[in-house]
Design brief:
The structure is a homotetramer. By secondary structure, chain A is of the alpha+beta class. Chain A is built from 15 helices and 10 strands. The first copy, chain A, starts with a helix and ends with a helix. β10 (268-272) of chain B pairs parallel with β6 (174-188) of chain C, so a sheet runs across the interface. Chains A, B, C, D: Residues 87-267 form the Mucolipin extracytosolic domain.
Chain lengths: 490, 490, 490, 490
């Protein structure tokens, strides 16, 4: 407030000073004009595009350019996303197919519990895989084929990892182990009806020392459905890896099937009957930023292996661009207060998150140590954090209560106290305080806006000039002289 | 505030002016009376029905009529809804029946994963459908029958879509394809124990080129259960379409069963033993609005195919009518403040939703591109939006965290950062700001009501007249002269 | 505020009046004393038990009695609840047993989809039930037995409901039906290895006319586990009813198993080896209210059939008693403000719920009509309301979005608009307004308490007396004269 | 406020007093200096570490030590947690293995419904267990072995609990029972292909009197996977107990498998081929507090049976240590207000929880009694509380509505009223009041901070001294004289 008076004093002094020295008056009036010019010029500089249009009739080219850029980036992202969606779907469906073809008695959704517990079952599962692999093209309804390397099919490899040596007698609580891991591999060529004994005569699993068995083979396929979208089909190499995992030696061997995909352009192709094919790498115009284009080309031709890094850059970039759009909303007064509130409350929210974060962390550590053995969700520090964060934000609590194993009364009571206090503390106190912080900030900003206090030296300087944008005084032709004079007099 | 003083000045001037010019006094007093008359008349006009009743004893016919209209519309809607509920249930149960009868090894709830992966399985499934179709009436416990067309059963048709020509060698990364799609159809008449080879001698599936196989047939049924509700039974034509979808050529052929329903009045019927039948199209009285009636009749006779459009109109209409009822609550002062708050806060909320929506959109785009390949819920832009919107409003977060596939560490970390920041930002900052906006609006409106500031010219004019509704001055017999005089003097 | 001044005027007048008329002074002073007495007496009357103890040393007998009563009622309720819990568990386990024994291929949790679709399956299921019933005691691991009536086993009855007459030709869209329902019953006595043809030679199901088949039989059992809790075992009569429901004639016959339970005291029993048996009907002490006792005795002896009505009375009663306890918390100032806020905000919250309820209702109706055919949760008006209410309060939204069937694009878009607007409106605006209402009420009450404005005539009268409870002036021996005088002077 | 004026009076008096008595002036000035010294010294004492550093350049050793301590405790906890995680995983996987090996037709996740209902099934299950136990090492893929006791395998024991005597005739509603429980045991040695008749010739189950059958045996195993983490493998004794529970005599015998684990150091071992083995009990340095170390050693050597007690102490301890860290955040002014708000609001929140708790309790009791028989979640008082608490905090409500069994209309309506009112009351009123309490506290504290009112005598005394920490006056060398003088003059 006192600052404001100072500023008007300063202004008054310009005017009251003038009549004092009559001969300096002309010079002074010229100075005053110059100051006024400067003020108006600066004020114009800080106008938003709408106001600039009103002030001088300048078309908001920059704004339009910005919007066009955002549109282009978004369209590109969406087109890339849509094409990517199809690739992902094809990969997923092939994975499902391989599970159904190569895993014995596999049921959809049962991968979590797909494991074997008996020695004969392990042999049966391996034999089943070899058999299915052997007459794949009589079975599959897709267009899968073996990989060929110089006219010869590349074989399926069966590899067994085991400790080099080891005699384990749990009955006596004694063991002798050589912790070096050895690997034994066999190659199996596609064959119509193999039995394990025939194909791998010397093959035996040393269950007590065994760490894992891995079956690896490559299948090739072509994604034909892109033909209907007027894109060229791609050729896929699926490397299927089936792992029998016995690292825990707990009597449970978990079986896992993964497929790594390698996408290439097909070597030789001929498509007829479709109206027009876009080469996929056209789209749109030439003024793309260089990095964007390269990324896009790379991804489109699907030769880039570091797909994840790219997508993170692309995604985060687009996100930031869009968040940047909010700036333009600040041009409108009613929007401005909301955005200002969010921005002003941000540091306080972050500060408070730090405080609450420490309490949160302490609950995480405590829960992990005490409840870890009794609840799936408290098994690792990471899942504890996710579970607690979800609980605050409205996750189902009852299952968390219910699935707590009730072996020990002490732990059971602890778990109840732990959950009730955590939820009460965070939902009733900490979430409420967030609301309070935001409300407080909003009130502060609203009062600031209503009192209209200038908050910086520049604002004080400009506050003297009250000309509205459409008053006409900003028009270049009229002011030209003024600015010219302003420049000359300097 | 200054406006208010003006208005009282205006009023004072009427009274202070009068004694000044004595000869104009009589005329002036008459004028004053006229103004007072007008004031009272306008005030009466803006009274709510209760006050009007107190002022002149006028019964609130309009209000009663409104309430009756709402009651009628709601009753009609409910009766239509209840009758519709039965139709939907019948359709649903028939769909379940067809799935159990025609899909081999079908298990309830398993439609998501109902697919085949082996060539022989495809043939088996088709043969099973033909067989079940062949002796349907010995199997079904419902009253299904084949459609007859001129005394002859309409046949089941088996159609195969495939690329006209195509040689695909994934092993060599080469292919040659003619993208024209050809369709090959066979008709099968109901037959007791068919084998595929017998019924369709030349039938062969070209798996590599095949896009889909479709089996289509029509079954007729009568919904007898309406008899017990004293309605006439309807005759249903179910067009059952079983699709083997191989468009992806991924090795997985998804099988889908749909039934399109066509509901007709039965041609010839005789019902006895039931007390009384309503023809379903009576109901109630004649002053129905024309569109409403037509719609209702159309839907009741079930000949309207565009059922969805109708239901959307009907539903939205009723919704708006009911929301209109809120207006009447504004008659009571305590309710009024709540409604006013909602209405006044609305533009600000919408404005803020715009701002938040941009941040939201940016998160959607980013999540779609980066997490799409790793999480079911981020597969399409639409599901991303639904997933994030649900997360804000209290959806289970833990499964979203958990189901993120952990193939790439980078993406895994990104997903954590993404979800933690999104939830924190939206729940702790943005939802809190909504509360702040509402609170602020409420305070503003409460202060306005307490200070009683008139907000429009009309209110200022009326604010002079302080007569209460039940003061008697509004009674028509007393005021008649006044108003008459008022009209004459004009 | 003006009222307050009035009250002090009134008070001043007593004192200023006195010196005016000297001869009336003595009388007046006596009057003043009387008024003071009355004031103190009334003030004492409104004191809370703690203050009364401080004022006159009176022990808070009433409060103690109240607390004892609450304790007794709660203990009784808990003991009844615990005993009831065991009965419910026994009933539930028997129901599971009957499902496993009598329903062919029954799997736990699959009752929703337990249905048959083929004619032979219906016969098979009935035959299976008869067979299992025939050699029940060789199968069951519980102590189930057939009911005997005069030395003869009561038979199992098979009843078929069907329309008296009916010829239905869906193929021609014609039907002729006599809507009278006839019932045909057969009795089957337990028999070792029956085949349906043997046992029920003339039994045939008229699928087209059939409404339902019902198999009913009675099994008796004794709940021995109460022996270990030193209670007498009860004898149970389970009436098992298996219903094949074909009312829809949709081709799907739903099978349902219910058991009605009748609990009696066993007729003849002898228990040894257990230390001491409480007869279960001891209770506790004699001052129980009459209704309570009768209820309890009735329920304990388990002869009361209207168990539900009782439990609702008992439960609601105990709830109200406990809520009444809150009154005592109002004795403490800090608690009082919270309770007062809740009480004061209540009418406004209810008012607002009315307004919001109308919008809510309009959404319910609209959703029911439009989305009913496309989503399970929108099938009936009741489930729509439950679903929407749950959505507001943090239910999983994503499944609601996801399970919307995507047949019609129009409905799909409508469903999105519907859900997004509903959730936004209710969570962002209406829930926020609740918070505002409560906050506003709290502020009002806090200011009232701080300004200490008396709000009623009585409070104004009492506000003059500022004696603290422990000041001693309330002691009976000292005041006795005063009060006596007070009574005499009247 | 009046206190503040007093304090300034006190201060003024020092200065105004001085010129009054000229000869006492020197003495007085010295006194003033002493007071000033003391003030500064105390003020320094209450400074936070940062300010102390600025004031005198003192390094914040204590703070650093604290942080180091916290780091050590957390690191230890994390290392212990990680090692514990592996143990828990090994136990869990073995439990899964035992279930798959010994329970007939066991399916993952189906333990809830794993039960038998037929007499022959009970015998079959027992025979299956004996058979699997007999040739365990030909089956298992883990390194399980029988326990040996003096060269002889310890046998599996089969124990049957039953009432000593009992004749139960549910058909007549009569029974005669001797409530003494007898136990009959058989020992079975591992045998290749036993049939129950052979192995246990006299074995028979008295189903009507039987309470339970228990099969107990011990298996030994070694957790080899720790070898890869450079830790010594541990030897495990699993005591497997399979219980057939018939206590309810409801016709359903629930089967349960538990394994108690005993972890020992292996007796004799030899590991080669791994680079370096940490003995697991090293880690870090010697200044550990004694209790902590002992606990850690005990747990690390895994001989401590009371693992749960330890983990609760460890977990809670670490939690408290971390929460203590928040104190240090109070050093920063912006953080301080948040922490102060939480602390100041705490008593009010607790008070309010008491009030709300009573309403909550009344709902719990009522729901338990009335809805207990009709809903799983309302079966016990504990689950009712958990269910309602979860509902308030955003649990899925729809399933709770939906799973309410609809047998009785009265109870159905009650359940709806119960749930709607409970949720409305708690979410709309009580949660909102929490927010109000926090907001109110925040406002109070903010105003207090802004008005800067000193709140204690000490603060008043210190408030006179306005020297900033980095003003230099606190430097020890400068003040030394002052403090010395201060001490001397006393």
């Amino acid at each position: 407030m006192p600052d404001m008076e100072d500023s008007s004093d300063l202004y008054d002094s310009y005017e009251s000073e003038a009549p004092a020295w009559a001969d300096h008056q002309a010079q002074h009036l010229e100075d005053l004009d110059t100051v006024e010019c400067l003020r108006r010029k600066i004020k114009y500089y800080f106008m938003n595009p709408c106001e600039k249009y009103h002030a001088r009739g300048r078309k908001p080219w920059k704004l339009i350019l910005q919007l066009v850029k955002i549109a282009i980036i978004t369209i590109q992202l969406v087109s890339f996303g849509l094409s990517n969606q199809m690739v992902v779907a094809f990969k997923e469906e092939n994975l499902m197919t391989f599970k159904h073809l190569f895993l014995k008695d596999y049921v959809d959704g049962g991968m979590d519990t797909y494991a074997v517990y008996r020695q004969t079952d392990v042999y049966d599962h391996i034999e089943y895989i070899l058999k299915q692999y052997g007459h794949l093209h009589n079975i599959t309804v897709g267009n899968h084929e073996y990989e060929k390397n110089g006219g010869v099919y590349t074989p399926l490899s069966v590899c067994q990892d085991f400790y080099r040596n080891g005699t384990i007698y749990p009955g006596n609580d004694t063991f002798e182990i050589d912790a070096h891991v050895e690997t034994e591999c066999f190659n199996v060529y596609p064959m119509y009806d193999p039995s394990l004994r025939e194909v791998l005569p010397g093959f035996e699993l040393h269950f007590k020392r065994m760490l894992s068995v891995k079956l690896t083979f490559v299948l090739k396929a072509i994604n034909l459905q892109t033909v209907r979208h007027r894109e060229l089909p791609d050729c896929y190499d699926f490397t299927v890896i089936i792992t029998f995992n016995n690292r825990a030696h707990s009597g449970r061997i978990k079986i896992d099937l993964e497929n790594d995909v390698d996408i290439n352009e097909c070597r030789d192709w001929k498509v007829s009957g479709a109206c027009k094919f876009t080469e996929d790498s056209d789209i749109f115009f030439d003024t793309m930023t260089i990095i964007g284009s390269i990324l896009k080309i790379d991804i489109q031709t699907k030769v880039l292996t570091s797909y994840d890094v790219c997508s993170i850059f692309l995604g985060t970039g687009t996100m930031l661009v869009w968040i940047g759009v909010i700036r333009y909303m600040g041009f409108f007064r009613k929007y401005n207060i909301l955005i200002l509130t969010l921005r002003a409350a941000f540091p306080n929210v972050i500060r408070f998150i730090c405080c609450a974060g420490i309490i949160y962390l302490s609950y995480c550590l405590c829960g992990w140590i005490v409840l870890g053995p009794y609840h799936e969700k408290f098994r690792t520090l990471n899942t504890v954090s996710e579970c607690l964060f979800s609980l605050i934000n409205g996750d189902d609590m009852y299952p968390t209560f219910k699935n707590m194993k009730q072996k020990s009364n002490l732990v059971w009571i602890f778990s109840r106290v732990y959950l009730y206090t955590f939820v009460s503390l965070f939902i009733y106190m900490i979430l409420s305080l967030f609301i309070t912080i935001i409300t407080d900030t909003y009130d502060t900003i609203k009062q600031q806006q209503q009192s209209g206090t200038p908050t910086s030296e520049l604002q004080k300087f400009l506050s003297v000039c009250k000309d509205l944008p459409n008053s006409g005084v900003y028009r270049l032709d009229e002011n030209n002289g003024c600015f010219l004079q302003c420049w000359i007099s300097r």
